[in-house]
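Practice problem 4.
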């Protein structure tokens, strides 16, 4: 056998069915990352594989595995967009054509590594990941194997598994193992091509779409489960154990948690482990997510948290406007409340408003400004003085001192998962009582220097959990209906294929 030749292809998006912002080619190119072939290598060399947030992700892991095994590996196509609304039909046509062009122009391949999310949807309810997987399969000779990495929040289905030699989902939440997951699936592919292993897989589908607290891997109840995963993967012949706890802000008719197990030629062991881990995650479903309070009560809890404010900051999590789960990051609810009812507190908060940034961009530091900001349903006037301008990997931003709030106006959805979102906007979190977080849990990893306490509040937007609780699925599932066992549902799903 000559030197193996592998291609890497990423189409990665988490779609929020309740978002007002549809995902278009422009949003992929403006807010995401679109690279063809070696453009991805040039981008990686500049420091961050996923701009401004993740230095090394699946492609870096793919390259590491190829280099370690003396395999030729290269990028085919990369389209990545952080969570927003469903992908338009026109954009889906563009993505299909890009994938076909990349595969038809790259020459003969021995294998392909896909980096998918597992919760991407297009207009008309098209499951994008399954569509891309089927398209790649159709473009390759039947003998060329495909492996895939998925997000832990993938909604794993039969169509998202069909035609794969193996898959692996992130094992951490917040996600810290993108590079490791890319390397892992590439190693499985290489070892299989060389005849060193024979991957066999099975899966289980559970009737639950929300529960298990926040699903954080280093906190109860998931800590015990993820510890067992690590121990299982140390066993001989176990190649991967993946838990997929789905993205709940979706319109998938087959929404639900899943387990996928891959072993080296031992189907019985795969079935045994799949049952065991399905039992373990099923047992976590009753653990509630953190309580989310009306704004008045949340601010009262902030005022009562004197030591947390003295020693650091209180993280106020806007559960209705979580950018990391597909909301737009443009809520003005807290800004209005602070201005009217809580001028004794100092808060750092972001608002995404591309038009406001454009209008104020040429105004100098110190200029007094007045501009309308926020979503169409809740426009409000922001008045204050410009403190800072920013233009970089996190997009363009203007910091406005608006009395009780220092507002970072952003032309991109404000992912506040790293303190740099605020510090690079000229702000010191230690000087504030409140820092607004636009993620459910990412700040737990990135903010330990500042974070002392979390208080979730009920903002309005695409990630309002009342949307999820109102979902009408074509089958009984927790938390709508609490079934005594998962097995009957799993059998029906897998028999239907």
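Answer key:
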């Amino acid at each position: 056998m000559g030197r193996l030749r592998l291609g890497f292809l990423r189409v990665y998006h988490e779609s929020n069915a309740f978002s007002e912002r549809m995902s278009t080619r422009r949003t992929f190119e403006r807010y995401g990352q679109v690279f063809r072939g070696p453009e991805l290598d040039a981008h990686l060399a500049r420091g961050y594989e996923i701009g401004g947030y993740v230095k090394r992700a699946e492609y870096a892991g793919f390259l590491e595995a190829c280099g370690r095994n003396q395999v030729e590996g290269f990028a085919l196509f990369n389209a990545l967009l952080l969570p927003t609304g469903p992908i338009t039909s026109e954009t889906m046509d563009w993505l299909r054509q890009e994938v076909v062009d990349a595969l038809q122009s790259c020459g003969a391949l021995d294998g392909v590594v896909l980096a998918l999310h597992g919760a991407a949807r297009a207009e008309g309810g098209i499951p994008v990941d399954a569509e891309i997987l089927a398209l790649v399969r159709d473009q390759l000779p039947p003998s060329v194997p495909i492996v895939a990495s998925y997000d832990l929040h993938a909604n794993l289905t039969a169509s998202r598994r069909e035609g794969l030699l193996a898959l692996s989902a992130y094992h951490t939440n917040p996600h810290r193992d993108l590079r490791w997951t890319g390397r892992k699936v590439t190693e499985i592919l290489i070892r299989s091509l060389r005849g060193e292993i024979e991957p066999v897989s099975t899966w289980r589908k559970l009737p639950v779409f929300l529960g298990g607290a926040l699903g954080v891997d280093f906190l109860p109840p998931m800590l015990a489960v993820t510890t067992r995963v690590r121990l299982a993967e140390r066993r001989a012949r176990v190649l991967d154990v993946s838990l997929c706890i789905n993205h709940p802000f979706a319109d998938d008719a087959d929404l639900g948690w899943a387990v996928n197990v891959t072993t080296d030629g031992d189907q019985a062991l795969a079935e045994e482990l799949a049952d065991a881990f399905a039992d373990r995650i099923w047992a976590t479903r009753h653990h509630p997510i953190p309580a989310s309070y009306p704004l008045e009560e949340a601010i009262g809890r902030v005022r009562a948290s004197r030591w947390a404010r003295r020693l650091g900051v209180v993280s106020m999590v806007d559960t209705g406007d979580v950018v990391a789960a597909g909301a737009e990051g443009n809520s003005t609810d807290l800004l209005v409340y602070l201005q009217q009812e809580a001028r004794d507190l100092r808060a750092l908060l972001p608002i995404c408003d591309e038009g406001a940034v454009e209008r104020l961009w040429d105004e100098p530091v110190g200029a007094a400004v007045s501009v309308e900001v926020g979503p169409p349903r809740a426009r409000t006037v922001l008045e204050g003085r410009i403190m800072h301008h920013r233009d970089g990997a996190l997009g363009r931003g203007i910091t406005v001192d608006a009395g009780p709030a220092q507002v970072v106006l952003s032309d991109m959805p404000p992912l506040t998962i790293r303190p740099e979102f605020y510090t690079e906007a000229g702000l010191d979190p230690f000087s504030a009582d409140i820092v607004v977080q636009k993620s459910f849990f990412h700040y737990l990893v990135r903010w330990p220097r500042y974070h002392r306490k979390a208080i979730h509040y009920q903002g309005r937007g695409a990630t309002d959990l009342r949307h999820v609780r109102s979902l009408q699925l074509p089958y009984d599932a927790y938390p709508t209906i609490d079934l005594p066992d998962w097995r009957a549902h799993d059998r029906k799903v897998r028999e239907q294929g």
